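Can anyone check this?
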Amino acid sequence: MDRSPTPKLNRRDFMKATIYAIGGLIGVTLAIPAVAYIVGPALTKVTQNWIKLGAIDKIEENTPTLFKATITDQTGWINSQEEISVYVLTEDGQTYTALSNVCTHLGCHVRWNPDDSEFACPCHNGVFAKDGSVISGPPPRPLDHFQTKVENGFLYILRG
């Protein structure tokens, strides 16, 4: 008969095991909320962000009308407010074209010049047509367009 002595847990080994168990419990307790904090914003659903500009009866036909809107963006845990300006044009009162008023060259704000029927950028003399296409100057591309919709007499644009 082979009798091997059963190992006894001495006091030092018991304290080590207890300290490791408590440390592991604290680590797991802190890790779960930290992972949720970091990963949480990435798991939120992306929704379409329709921005209400104003009533469609304020838009004159064949003349770009400037609308301003303040929007609140949430990026992760940070909220920020931004004011955007959009020129809206309609030629028939049924379909609407929404153009950004930010020049595609260096981000200056363009202005509608009714005498020449064009948008002019005051920074570097960029000139855009009524539809937003580049006529002259340094802008590399046309003015940005927004998708539009009308609900209950109000115009909305889709901001990506």
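Reply from J.R.: I decoded it. The chain is about 20% helix and 35% strand.
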